[in-house]
Every structure is written in C-alpha cells, then in structure tokens.
Amino acid sequence: MGTSAPGETPPAEPEVAVEPEYRAFLSYSHSDAPIARAIHRWLEGYRVPRHLVGRSTARGVAPRRLTPIFMDRSELAASASLSGAVDEALAASACLIVLCSPAARESAWVDLEIRRFRQLHPDRPVLAALVRGTPQTAFPPGICQPRSFGAVDEPAAADFTRHGDGRLLAYLKLVAGVIGVPLDLLVQRHVQRRLRRVAIATALATLSVLVLAVALIMAIRAQREAEQQREQAEQLIEFMLTDLRGRLRGVGRLDVLDVVNRRAMAYYAAQGDLAALPTGSLERRARVLHAMGEDEQRSGAFATAAAKFAEAHQATAALLAAAPDDPERLYAHAQSEFWLGYVAFMRKARPAASAHFARYKALALRLVAADRNNPAYRRELAYAHGNLCSVEVEDQRTLPAALQSCASALATMARLSAAAPHDTALRLDLANRHAWMAQALEANGQITSALAQRHRQIAILDRLVAGDPRNARIRQDAALARFSLAQILRKSGAEARAVEMAGTAHAAMAALQRSDPANRDWKTWNARIEQQFPSNER
After folding, report:
1. How many Å apart are CA 386 and CA 341, to the nearest integer?
2. Using an 8 Å Cβ cutoff, are 116 and 90 in contact?
3. Whole-model pTM?
4. Dihedral sign, CA of 287, 288, 294, 300?
C-alpha cells in the first residue's frame, strides 16, 4: 500500500450508500390524522405482487412490504424547527408522502417537513395525496417550490377526494410512486386479484345458502365480504371504462374497447337480479351502458347504440325519481338524454333529437341552479346549447335560432377554457364549438366569418397535436377540420387552396388508417375526401 507524501492530504474513504430506514415519511396536518392513520395502515398492510418483488426499479429493489412508514408527529416541539427525531426520520426516508388539504396548506410543520426533506434528498420523490379540497387550495407552498432553472416541481396527486381517482386507484398511485413502478402493472394485478376474489366470494355465498339452517352467521359474513369485493371489482371496472378507455381511444384501439365493454357487461350479467343490486352498482352499470353505446355509435351501429342508451335511460330515470335533487343522479340522467338525442340526430330523426336535447338542457339548468360555481355543470349547459345549435343548423327555418344557440355555446366554452387553459378536453370542446359556429355561419351565407371560425378551430387542434402527437382522436379531429375548411374554400372560389387543404386532410387520415386498418370511421372519411377531392386533382 502506498503512503502519502509529507504535507499531502490522504485520499478520502469512498462513501458507502446507506439503505433508507423508512420506505416513506408521512407528512400531514393534525386535523387530517384519521385519514393519515388509514392511509398508513393500508400502505403498511399492502403486499407487493410477487412478480414485482426483487425487481430493480428507480427506487431500488422492490420490497415485499412497504414497511416501515414513519408517521409519528408527537415529538414535534413548540418551536420554529423540527425535532431531532423527526429530522432523523426525514433523513432516513426513501420518499415523502404529503397529505394535501386546506389544513395542510396552512400548516407550518407540513411545509417545513417538505422543505427539509428536499434539502436532505433533492433526488428523492415527493408524493402528493389530495385528501380534501383542490390542488390550488390544498397543496402546501413547499410542494410547488421552484427547482433548478426556474422549473416548478408540482407532483401529480393521488386524489382521495369524492370525485377523484377513487380510494383504490389513489392508493395504487401512492404504491407505484413509493416502489418506482408504472401504475398499469399494479392495476393489472389488482384486476386479476379482485375478480378472482369476487368469484370465490360468490361461490362461498352460494354454498352458505345451501347450509343456511346451520350456518346463518357464516352466510351473513360471506355476503358482506361479497359486497365489499363487488365494490372493489366495480371500481376497477369503472377504471377500465374511464381512464383505460381514454387511453385506448387515444391510440384508436376500438377493438380492445369492445373486449373491455363485453367483459364489463358479462360481470353484471353474472350478478343475477338487477333489482337486488345496490344503488351504487346500478349507477355504475348505467355508466357502462353509456360507454358501450358511445363505442357502438362510433362504429356506425346506431340501432345497437340506441338500445344501450335506452336501457341506461330507464335506469337513470328510476334512480333520479328516487332522489330528484341529487346532483349526481341529475348528471347521470342528463347523459342518458344527451346520448339518445345524439343517436337520433345521427339517424336524421330531428324531432326526436330536439326533444331529447331540450330535456338535456332542462337537466343542465337544474345542475347549474344547484351549484352555479361548478365548472362541470356550466360545461354541461354549454353542451346543451351546442346540441340545440347542431339540430337547428340542419333546418333553414331555424337558422336565426341556430346562430344564437351556437354563439351562446361558443361563448360559454371559451370562458371555461380560458379558466383552465391546460385542460385538453376543454380545448377539444372549444374547437368543436368553433366548428359548429362555422357551420351555422356557412349555412347562413356568411362564408368569410365561417372561414375565420374554421381557422380558429384548426389552430387549437394543431397546438393539441403538437403537445400529444400520438393521440389519434386529436389527429382525426385536425384532419376532419381541414376537410371542412377545404369544402368552404371551394365554395368561396379558392379552388387551389381547397384542393391543397383536402390533400393535407387525406394524408393525415391515411396515416391514421395505416395505424389501425380495422377502424371503419377512418376508412369512411378517407373515401369521402377522395370522392369530393379526387387524388388526380391534387
């Protein structure tokens, strides 16, 4: 071994990486202590799926259990600094979970823990769990602190609120963040596990009926377990028909959507008598029928779609009759009226469409009256005006009313979009309202104004495509907007520009069709563009 020359500093010993003592540090306000204890208990009791245990992730090696998780706040002294025990726990934690609420936002301790954790571990994750309020009213200041180069680190929250992710999905988001794996891996595993438990619980319930005389207590316990398992299974089914559907539609996989729909209905068929299902299950089943009907109408199967929407309408009407002032039931029945009106509109049944859309508007007005500050309800009212605009545009006798309905819908959607500029769904809705305004103006002979509306629609869609170039739905809307613009340009006499625009639309739609040759919508639109603007003219 060599020695150091006189006056030289001996080389430093290499640092040894220390495994964190705690999987996570739970930071919360004292007023949120009950839910903090519930989250702590669930996380420490969670068993990581066997196929993930031992896998190398961004957080290290995936453990079998998420233990221990630090949450003891009793040692905080009444001073402006953290106690030694808490500071040591922060230093020994692999990540920080912050329970976000209005109380947490006002808590100096929660903010201090966030800042101290980031000071100790700038490379370790800070996970947000939204338990009350909204990100704007609940996120503590420290969670959104500027990081390097002026960027802002605002973590995506696991939303435990009533209208958020749902408890199960919110818990799984936290687990994914703690162990460093994609959320989809955990969801897939839970789908299999929960559906298997439902089957087992159902079998146990059936068996207990046969021995009811001698095992009544066992039967009651099995029934309760079955209800709990059914609730969890239905939450996962709703995830498949909301978040998962959005992702599949975004890549144009309508074939996979059909499989998801059929499996969901098979699950409800296996439950037996629908009248025996709890209210929550009936509400979810109506949402499944809405989703299935939407997919059927997208593929052109309007009769099948109408049957699905009519069945959902019957269910939501009965639920609303039982609680006529319940906003959630008002909303659900409004969706049934909308979809029946939309299918009637697509089948050219104008009187039926107008009747359903008028009832939809009446329900939307009741929602707004119940909560004028709720943007989701005001959005429904904008849709209602837009639907009436769509029907009235088709009839020359109602064009003045159409212009008024279209303008009202556009103005409302513009205000909602301006209030939430990063909401992609709202931006798509705004683009759609520009499209209908253009159609109403074109039908009224105001070609120049119609062109301006189409250009605004395309500008919005092009920005959305640039931000999400793989989203098939946005790319489709952008292509069809250019096709519509080409038609107006031809009507205005700008034939060369019309042909050029149609060529761009055809190329974009052809690219979509190559990604999913089974998609009949894209094939139909491609043929329609080719028919009106043959390729030998482009």
Report:
1. 12
2. yes
3. 0.47
4. negative
